[in-house]
Amino acid sequence: MKEARHIVLGVHITDRTRHAHQVQDLFTEYGCSIKTRVGLHTVADNFCSPNGLVLLEMAGDEKPIFELIDKLGAIEGVDVQKMIFEHD
């Protein structure tokens, strides 16, 4: 049996304080398709970056994964990139 494709998304969010709640709502809605989630942004004692990057390792049926990509991409200030790895 052929293993399912491995899909990893990079979600870049600009102006996190303005857009993060919409992104988080979608992450919750599609939570059953998210296997691993890693958030990256610059933090210092007196600074927290307004931009962030979230890496998502996806799992399961691909239909909701591509729905999530479309919905995230429709949010102003959000850019989604995907990596798809085929298993031979």
Automatic annotation (TrEMBL):
Gene3D superfamilies: ACT-like. Chain A, domain 2 (3.30.70.1150). InterPro entries: Acetolactate_synth/TF_NikR_C, ACT-like_dom_sf, FeFe-hyd_TM1266. Pfam families: TM1266-like. It comes from the Bacteria. This is Iron-only hydrogenase system regulator. It comes from Anaerobaca lacustris.
